[in-house]
Amino acid sequence: MDRERFERRLTVLLAVIGGMLAVLAIRLWQIQIVQGEYYLRLAEENRIRVTSITAPRGQIRDRQGRSLTLNRPAFTVSLVPTELRHPELVIPEVARRLGMSPQEVAARLAAIPDRPYEPVRVRRDVPKEAIAALEENRMDLPGVLVQVEPVRDYLFGPLAAHLLGYLGEIGDRELQTLRSRGYDAGDLIGKDGIERIYDGYLKGRNGQVQEEVDAQGRPLKRLATVPPTSGDIVDLGIDLDVQKAAEEGLGPRLGAVIAMDPRDGTIVALVSHPAFDPNRFATGIPVKEWDRLLHDPQQPLLDRAIQGGYPMGSVFKIVTATAALELGLVQANSWFNCPGYYALGSRIFHDHEEHGALNFVEAIAKSCNVVFWTLARPVGPDNLAKYARMYELGQTTGIDLLQESAGVIPDPDWKQRVWQQMWFPGDTLNTAVGQGYVLATPMQVARLLAAVANGGTLVTPHLVTRISSPDGRLLLRLAPPPSGQIHLSARTMGALRAGLEAVVTRGTAASIQIPGLTVAGKTGTAENPHGIPHAWFAGYAPIDHPTLVVVALVENVGYGAEFAVPIVQRVLQAAFGTGQPGAPHPGPAPAGGTRPDDTHP
Amino acid sequence: MSAALTGPPLPIPTGPGRFLRQVDLPLLGTTLALAAFGLIMVYSSTHVSAHPFLYVRSQALHLAVGMVVGGLLLAVDYRTFASGARVLYVANLLLLAAVLVVGRTSLGAQRWIALGPLGQFQPSELAKIVIVITLAKHLTDRPGPYRSVWELMPFLGHIALPILLIFRQPDLGTALVYGAIFAGMLYAGGARRRDLAVIGAGGLLLVPALWHVLKDYQRRRLLAFLHPTLDPLGAGYGIIQSKIAVGSGLLWGKGLFAGTQGVLRFVPEHHTDFIFSVVGEELGFVGSVALLGLFLLWLARGVRVATVARDRFGALAAVGIVSMVAFHVFVNVGMTVGMMPITGIPLPFISYGGSALMTMIWATALLLNIGMRYQKAGIEFDASPAVPVRVIRMRGRSERLEE
What region holds the Penicillin-binding protein transpeptidase domain (chain A) (predicted)? Predict the structure, then answer.
């Protein structure tokens, strides 16, 4: 290219640059000279206010589409730092009306310094009377803002509190990582349970209003509005009726109840008592009340169903029986004699009863300790641990809840490592009947029973079955794959199931009588260092094609047969409908369910 | 310097002194004026705090370091950079890739590399100069004429790689600066207008696809610009507040240091990307236009350097630098007055930010370097190399010597 053409092009380039700068100068003339007075007024009076509109949180529904949570409108009182002209007068007055101390109010103002033009929430869910008083004195209270915000309403109070979780104001550290995902200071965020794990879906998207306000803070003109977007709907596998039956069955006692579909791990009911009322958290829980919950010796915040590690008691005999059967040490019709005690060297282990002559199935049915002690030695501690781990005891189930406990399955190595002690033959005997060091969560027990019920699939328990947008579009269907498959011989499986059926038909859980429904299961009475034994029952129904596993654990009450079995019976009645043979069970079908309502008394 | 001793047709007398006498004084003066203006504005926008000199001291330090290094750069014949273009290009890509791996995250983007006591360094700033140099060399090696759009593809590929890396950081604004550099240099380099238009149209067609790649905050900023009323999370708020600040300056402004108390705390990042809002508020229309005038003077001198440059490489490098600075000024001021989306492009010489300031100083040094080694070589560009003849022969490029 010749130099002349190059210089021509440079001239064009310079002209373009000059043109661009001229455009900027014209624009400056426009906003500084033509509209300057307008902007100057805006600047001096600083009259733009930005308020966010809290998005209604998504609903959580049971499998039939019944809401467990809703939102109710409530008043929120905020302060706008830039409009607060006489903080020394306004803050004490606001504090008095809201029943707070001026220091508390000032601390909330100080916590959020980076955007002084945005309102800082002082208190949510303020009673109407206080709002009326504030509105009356509005002229004397510049910088005070009253807004209506949706507040989470847990319709059934403490029902299913542990799985639903609760809300709390977003913390500084959370905010740092979440700000880019649309979270803001002062937002409420799920702190536990479904509310926490699925917060990203439930939260929705806050809207915003930009408006010009006058000196008293009264809106003059809306500059812009972005409506909020409601959070997504989370559907659970929980059946409200079954959940209620489980809650009532457990009553005021401490413990946990789980109902689960053994075919895919969908949780139908999950109870832990004592519970708490998540409504207390929905607007930010007072510190005192939080402390009380945290330090309550009964630990209401602990989800016993997944975080409590308990000795399994005789429920563990399912594992011992599996090991003995698979190792060929015993068959369904092997005969034993139970004199009511077992001698290990000079030590005598006493059974609760003298069963006399009985076969292996009867031994399971009657929960004869002598038989299992007899089998414990040839099976050995390593095989006990191996088969327990095969059922994935001693590891978390992967349920969609937080801080699940893994429990403990002991073996000689473990004892040496943790206790720096030798494994004694007595430890083997204890382990074989679920005592000693064995610890499991009710959820692990539920999965163990599910594996027996479904032929060996280790399902992944899960609460949420699907998530859909507020307008009903399906966003996500959750069906986590099983975490494993165990292969037992048909003979082993047959003997196990025969034993568990015999428990209900003529054994320790013979009190379960539900016309038209066949049930199998295992009781447990777990001795523990805290006093009276824990009562267990873990069962499934119906026996030919199981669709529900129910596990009940009651802390420190006594026999499983006496205390846990009635709870399971009640749950089964609720799930299958009393006296209605073949009533369709709450299958994995999603909300809107296949089950007609008249099956629920 | 060895470079000064070679270059066959150089007039006598030789030596560094001759070049220093040829330094473009208006350009140097304008640069110093802009830098001083910048220091004052940085002070003005940050002095209301517990440490009033914190920012301005850091800015002055970077300015000093930048000028010392820039002065040393003057001593090296700019054609030396041309011969090292390949190495520079690769090193540049590696540095940009390194940001993605070890970079510090801030405001949702990864742009910085920590340099211990020297603070943080933003490679994408320095990369702008490197791209100018390597693209100028590339255009010199393939001098055209470019008869179709396909003949421009090698150059498009040349900038596509670094753009891609910067986009991943993500830094939309800097990626656009590369586009401006590309357009300016190819236009000056002789590409046909319609071919450039085709590439520009292609870029526009890519926009819907890019939309999916953009980070959420970038989309919001773009949307907030396109619909100022649609303002999800404050992106439009910045624009409105910035316009209020600038507009309230009126003709003469509120006076230096007088604007920071009232309005500016509402303007986000008012000492960096939005520093022009401080200028607008405190110095008014007169001060704002005066600053634009300074930029115009600087850019005009830059274009002059391009016209007097002794070779195609120097001329195109000068055009690249001019395009870069012009784009910065236009987009940054445009953003402050609500004409452009918020892209995070700083105002050259003025905005607070060490990497950007030093980059601009070194870009100026490169311009001065090209300008002071000018030589009217007649109608065509001089093609003589900067490095001694012997070296070239050893590299086996003897064909050049026959010219």
Answer: 255-572
B269 → chain A, closest CA residue:
A114
> For residue A57, how many C-alpha atoms fall within 13 Å in the half-sphere facing its CB?
30
Name the band, by pLDDT with cuts 50, 70 and 90, for residue B300.
very high
Q: Tell me: do A133 and A269 sit in the same domain.
A: no
Please count the residues of chain A: 601
Total domains in chain A come to 2
Distance CA A41, CA B244 (A): 9
Q: Which helix (H) or strand (E) holds A313?
A: none
pLDDT band for position A216 (cuts 50, 70, 90): low
Q: Do B322 and A117 touch (CB under 8 A)?
A: no
Q: What ipTM goes with this model? A: 0.85
Q: A 142-201 residues with CB below 8 A of B?
A: 180-182, 184
Cα distances from A478 to residues A266, A464, A472, A598, B212, in angstroms, run 10, 7, 16, 28, 26
Model pTM score: 0.61
Q: How far apart are CA A13 and CA B193, in angstroms?
A: 12
pLDDT of residue A460: 95
| pLDDT band, residue A568 (cuts 50/70/90) | very high
Asked whether A386 and A410 are in contact (CB, 8 A), the reply is no
Q: Reply yes or no: is the peptide bond before residue B13 cis, omega within 30 of 0.
A: yes
Rounded average pLDDT over A331-347:
89
Do A570 and A576 touch, CB atoms closer than 8 A?
A: no
Give start and end residues of each alpha helix (H) in A281-368.
287-295, 304-307, 317-326, 360-366
Residue A113, chain B, CB below 8 Å: the answer is no
Specify if A26 maps to a domain: no
Strand partners, A53: A207
Crossing angle, helix A317-326 and helix A369-390, to 10 degrees? 80
Say whether residue A221 is in contact with chain B using an 8 A CB cutoff.
Answer: no
Kindly state the tokens that stand for B338.
């609500």
- Mean of all residue pLDDT scores within chain A: 87
Structure-block tokens of residue A335:
């005969």
The number of angstroms, rounded, from the C-alpha of B240 to the middle of its chain's C-alpha atoms is 27
Do B244 and A48 lie within an 8 Å CB cutoff? yes
pLDDT of residue B390: 40
Q: Which two tokens mark B270?
A: 């008012």
**Chain A, chain B: beta-carbon pairs less than 8 Å apart:** 154
Q: Could you say which of B145, B234, B319 has the minimum Cβ distance to residue A13?
A: B319
CATH number at residue A260: 3.40.710.10
A36: contact with B, CB 8 A cutoff: yes
- Alpha carbons B61 and B35: distance in angstroms, whole number: 12
pLDDT, tens only, A153-194: 999 999 999 999 998 888 878 887 787 777 877 788 998 999
Q: Is residue A108 part of a domain?
A: yes
Are the Cβ atoms of A32 and B233 closer than 8 angstroms?
Answer: no
Give per-residue pLDDT as tens, B320-358: 999 999 999 999 999 889 888 777 789 999 999 888 999
Indicate if A249 and A348 belong to the same structural domain.
Answer: yes
What per-residue confidence (pLDDT) applies to B115? 56
Going edge to edge, which strands form the sheet with A120-126? A120-126, A69-79, A144-154
- Residues in A touching B187 (Cβ below 8 Å): 9, 12-13
Interface of A with B in 222-241 (CB under 8 A): 223-224, 226
Among A103, A133, A154, the domain-final residue is A154
Residue numbers in A near B250 (CB within 8 A)? 32-33, 36-37, 40
Range of the domain at A98: 75-154
- Tell if the CB–CB gap between A2 and B379 is shorter than 8 Å: yes
Which 377-396 residues of chain B touch chain A by CB within 8 A?
379-381
Among A120, A154, A188, where does a domain finish? A154
Q: Is residue A45 part of a domain?
A: no
Spans of all domains in chain B: 24-402
